[in-house]
Amino acid sequence: MRINNSNDRVHVLDAHANVWTVITDIADSGVQEEAFYVCDLGDIVRKHETWKAFLPRVQPYYAVKCNDSLAVLEVLAALGTGFDCASKGEINKILDLGVSPNRVIFANPAKPSSHIRHAAATGVSTMTFDNETELHKVKSLYPDAKMVIRIRCDATDAQCPLGMKFGCDPISDAPRLLRLARTLDIDVVGVSFHVGSGCREPLVFNRAIASAKDVFDYGITLGYNFELLDIGGGFPGDHGSSISEIARVINSALEDYFPDAAVQVIAEPGRFYVSSAYTLACSIHSFRDVISNDETTKHRMYYINDGVYGSFNCILYDHQHVVPQPLHELAGSKYYSSSIWGPTCDGLDQVVEDVLLPEMRIGDWIVFENMGAYTLPVASAFNGFPIAQVHVAAEENIWDLFKDILPLTEEHLIMGNVSPNLKMDLDISRDESSIIQHLPIRMQVPKSDSIVEEHVLEYVGYMQENN
Ligand SMILES: Cc1ncc(COP(=O)(O)O)c(C=O)c1O
Question: What pLDDT is recorded for position 123?
Fold first, then answer.
């Protein structure tokens, strides 16, 4: 979701509605052609509850890079998380929400000078480093900064390893860097690490926390008294995943190595908070059958309206494995070996290489869950194919939590389940007016004393307003 996307909207769900019914309503309306997301705010709220239950000592600083949609940031700001920002632009996004600079860590160990100056100007004082030049830059541009040394400790198995780019060796590099910081009279306040995004080796957190403790101890020999441990990201976030094992390892390592509650422990979870909150629906606009020479087998190639240059960039950059689910499956459908391709003219634009799918037609929809992490912020409109828009959904109780926080006014409301602006530029064969009447909508403008009567309210433009 782009901040100034005037088509962003919020669906308030009653007990009979959920993400799949919203997708079905929109897809079956006959007036939606482009791919679209549904983002479930309740899923983000439930993740936060899970975090607090499993990791009570660790304050989450959400990694903005993972998904910088305004709705996500607003909800997390309201829930009280901190934020991990990597740039001036991300810092601005967070401070514009009214979040205190104390709740931000500038967690990029190699920062352009102008971004360091910006951090100084805005009071974002906590920032990471892993090299000498960063210390010299900080000394001249922001001498009062509170620095956090990032050490390297890699999981043996991670979806996206990070150690080859960031993190100094805790034994051979960290002591030298800390001595230089001391000489430059720079305040170092703690240690951070990132074991790799999509960590598949929970035990690495024990090794990393033990290493961090050694660096804390070395700091004491130089007269430092570190107060911050930042355990980075790496937590899974798909439907059905769990952080219980990682949390068990972390909690036990914290007890062993950092029993003193005076040490503040933070983390920088990204995908944990947003992966399962976003579900993407794509429609089939073309297909092609490839018949074997002996005419005994058929492979079907489906072409859909989002691909690796759009949302599915996560396949290339985030090494994601995406799972297609037909929105509707006709009873008795024949299944074929199938591949799914994006809409651009590039041969690289393949979403799924080979999967058994029921026979589908042009106009049918395919749904992909777990599409909230490292998708939208990276997507491009290459070849003129638009980036999928986001419909934000929230159950009524969740919406009640946030309606006073999200900056919505009556002007941002539109009537109807499907916004008129979705109908532009479409090749629609059905009678639109009958479709709109058919949709299950009774609207009430949510003044503070109003009651939400039916399952959908829509808001358009609040992102634009807030930009
Ligand atoms: C510095 C930093 N912190 C946090 C994250 C978020 O990691 P994850 O999404 O695995 O939680 C990243 C991801 O690349 C990162 O580079």
Answer: 98
Model pLDDT for residues 344-400, shown as the tens digit of each residue = 999 999 999 999 999 999 999 999 999 999 999 999 999 999 999 999 888 888 877
CATH superfamily of 42-269: Alanine racemase (3.20.20.10)
pLDDT of residue 289: 96
Q: What is the pLDDT of residues 174-203, one digit of tens each?
A: 999 999 999 999 999 999 999 999 999 999
From 84, 134, 241, give the residue whose CB has the most ligand 1 atoms within 8 Å, as the site to mutate. Answer: 84
Give catalytic residues, as residue numbers. 345
**Is the shortest distance between the CB of 42 and ligand 1 below 6 Å?**
no
Whose Cα sits closest to atom 13 in ligand 1?
197
Give the residue extent of every domain in the chain. Answer: 42-269, 275-387
Q: How many CB atoms lie within 10 A of CB 288?
A: 11
Instruction: Report the separation in Å between the CA atom of 234 and the middle of ligand 1, taken as the mean of its atom positions.
Output: 7
CATH number of 275-387: 2.40.37.10
CA of 403 to the centre of ligand 1 (A): 29
User: Does the pLDDT value for residue 420 go beyond 70?
Assistant: no
Rounded to an integer, what distance in angstroms lies between the CA atom of residue 309 and that of residue 409?
35
CB atoms within 10 A of CB 362: 11
- Helix, strand or coil for residue 272? helix
Measure the CA–CA gap between 124 and 251, rounded to whole angstroms: 28
